[in-house]
Fold:
Amino acid sequence: MWKISLCDLRLHPDDHRAVAEALESNWLTMGPRTQAFEQAFALALDPLQPPAAFAVSNCTVALHMAFVALGIGPDDEVIVPSLTFVATANAALYTGATVVLADVSSPTDLTLSVDDVLAKITPKTAAVVPVHYAGQPCDMQRLVSECQRRGIAIVEDVAHAPLADALLHGGHTAALGTIGDIGCFSFFSNKNMTTGEGGMVTTRNPQLADKLRLLRSHGMTTLTLDRHRGHAYSYDVVELGNNYRMDELRAALGTSQLSRLPDNNRKRCDGLAHYQRLLAPIIGLQVPFADRLPQGRSAPHIMPVLLPVGVDRQQVQEKMKDVGIQTSVHYPPIHTFTLHKDCERVRKDHLPVTDAVAPRLLTLPLYPELSDTDIEFVCRKLAAILESMPTTEAR
Ligand SMILES: Cc1ncc(COP(=O)(O)O)c(C=O)c1O
Structure:
């Protein structure tokens, strides 16, 4: 249907082989392949000091586990950007906490505004969730120092940014997901690497690691595999956990996908740079993050642009569809959803940047195999469509 779709999953023969081998192993639930995936993922994040890593069913439950492990509950507030996927906020709502929605930094930096976080911190603030939107790091250096001083936890939502780094004090870089208290990754099928559904939760804190390990599997002190191997005969239940486990098929796919992630991230960087060059001359169009320098490894995930003020976005999307190009919107802000608009446990004061950019956001296709010619086609068509459209305001 699409000449160029928003994302394009191309599985490698190694992916097929890895899943087939897992099937043939006759052990499908969490076991050695899951452990191998966790170890490989942790080493990919930081080969010298790998964090603890736990493979889980998806990033939504990774976020939920993170809040539960931190002891967050009904008396607490969690600060989350309004410009994120709804799961980031919902995971905090499941705990009974109040979600305080914060703004993004500016039209050209769509990551969490640390200034707005500081303005919204109260004595009840228990955690802040920087979302590394589009694969671009939040200002972790400043956020960490502000949160550490106040004893506020940081749960990084790294769904968009596996194997991207951020700049820290002294010019050091560190992998996103290893900087805050807990990092949460998604391997949904449109992400930079996939297991179909899947996620990973990471931490450098041994106490949190112990909690996360238990919470993932009903708070049980031994696993089915331990008993299968004769290493244990029974178990105790010491936390109110859940079944958030990954299975061996997905873990096998994850390890295989992970081996190509650095190369695919580099291809995404090349695509992003080509887009930025071609989109810069389009009058009235803004390209978020275009002036950012890499802070170490980069992992662009999506290609958001801001349409000229006053342009009817849906019409642009329809016209792009007519020429075979799929577009999307990342994201309708959380405070605009029916559920969250009227929810007392969601605070939504003063989000001027989010409100200003939300109607202008448009996501263009981005994936590793997107060729320069494809990108040129997308940019040419977008420029022509914008040229042909009336605006309610002067560009
Ligand atoms: C920023 C962000 N956070 C969390 C999630 C939830 O991830 P999952 O679908 O793996 O639960 C997503 C998924 O799209 C996301 O984009």
Summary: The pocket of pyridoxal-5'-phosphate is lined by residues 58-60, 84-85, 87-88, 131, 157, 159-160, 186, 188, 199 (CB under 6 Å). The chain has a mean pLDDT of 96. Residues 262-388 form a domain with the Aspartate Aminotransferase, domain 1 fold (CATH 3.90.1150.10).
